[in-house]
Amino acid sequence: MLLPLLGAAPPQGAGAAPSARLQNAFAAAAAEYQVPQSVLLGVAYLQSRWDAHGGAPSVTGGYGPMHLTDARTALARTVTHDHASGDARGDDSRAPLRAAEPVPTEAQLPARLKTLVRAARLTGIPAARLRSDAAANVRGGAALLAAAQKGLGKPLSAAPSDWYGAVATFSGADDTATAATYANDVFAVIRDGERRTTDAGQAVTLAADPTAAPRAAQLRAAGLRKADTSGTECPRTVSCEWIPAPYEEFGDGDYGNHDLADRPKDQSIDYIVIHDTEATWEQTLKLVQDPTYLAWHYSLRSTDGHIVQSIRTKDVGWHAGNWYVNAKSVGLEHEGFLAQPDSWYTEAMYRSSARLVTYLGKKYGIPLDRQHILGHDTVPGPTTSTIPSMHTDPGPYWDWAHYFALMGRPFHATAGARSDVVTIKPDFARNKPQFTGCAKAGEACAPHGSSAVRVYTAPSEDAPLVKDIGLRPGGQDSTIDVNDMASRVSTGQQYAVAERRGEWTAIWYLGQKAWFKNPRKQPTAVPARGLVVTPKAGASEVPVYGRAYPEAAAYPAGMTPQAISPLPYKLLAGQRYVTGGRTTGEYFYSPTFDTSTHTVVKGKDVYYEIQFAHRIEYVRAADVQVVPVTKS
Asked: Residue 69 pairs with which residues in a beta bridge?
């Protein structure tokens, strides 16, 4: 049966260009399993943007362009990082929380995490080949789509619109709203078309087909549940379900896992913090419903982008390890129990997350930039002793450039070539810094596109890496371990330029000059405008803080003031750091379950948030002066 192809496939055969092999694989698989090529391409785009990731699994154990899941194999190389190591509340009023439960066995995993095994049965292709061979992986995805179509009692039609139900089923979603949202996204890709070069250098094109229309009625035969969406705070363009975190006292004044508040009435919401869960979806929901554990506002599922809200945004979750940031933020946990740092995140989850962040940013006036949309790895340690225990998710393989482009806020040059501020912006697919420790300490990670750029003490890759005296008080050298944040910058972050030498740029970072390679032909940063802070005239150095707490005089009688604890870092005379804005010192006092005692202490001291290193920090406005950068 000859199927009409929405994008003319490159010529088949030995003479085809090597860069066209993946396009040819889609055409061949579509013909073999009688799936419209546009449907196969659209599904693969929403899964992986057609990338193969060198055979590395996603955060949920999905392999290849079709994101065929094989959790059992991926679990064998899992390295997890427990959310409860330390105090995620970031406050000394509670003891450290217990550890998360272990990852479940294969028998406990849902079918959506074992689709590669089923594809192997349908195609006869060995599982190992489905994991490592992109063309075989595409064949496996086509077989699953054809099986879904047949399972719904539908013919293997040449019309893309006839495959809406099969696409929704392919998502693995167990509720109608999520399946429909996923299928709608696939059909939007088909209607609009896409074209890109993959991480393996493969040129793939999906020609636009404005006639491809969703047929939601096809979902009736899928037998999916209806999720509880009542009370959720989500945009209409995502699937969002309400599964509440409990607010319970469980013994002698002890309670978890969040605090009731009245934001933004009692305090502003200034940040959104991006995490990965380090747990399965089922465990994630179990943990957020456990009153003795932690809680965050939203959880996002990898395979289909489904969102669960568990805390009202007016309330304060315990998720960031810094109580000041907790009190001023909304926490988003992205499914990632296979949290190998070289793992990747699905397009479906990126899109849902970007829509949610855009919605929350508009609702609360949160700027959509890296100074306010924080990775957990950029949240500062609130005190010196907490710096080494701060978390490193979502890691160097989270594609910040793509994420912000989905929000309609792409990173680009905003000033002339000689500006004294730069925005970090490497080409994600081509930027592959070497890391170790993904599967085993000291062992090299597989090459992988990254948002991270390494910084050195001199303009040479043979120079020592920049040291972080907060992370290693003994002065030990920094490493290239995937969880070592001491000597790296990340896409979208902005820094003040200290010097330029040929292909190298120096920025002010951790109180010193930090050099990164920035060649003209493959730049890792672009010029930008902005505001920077520098010590006031006459000051040789000023202290740096991990939280913006009010002065002691602001606390009411009977309440012990929180210490204004400087970190071991210094902002030295002549150095400049980009500021994300100013804020007045605040402290959310909530040591007991009884909300009648909760108070937001507001002071008069003003702080500036600065991009001091990989993590943000704060300086007092009384210690610095603000300087606009206008050089172009």
From this structure: 62
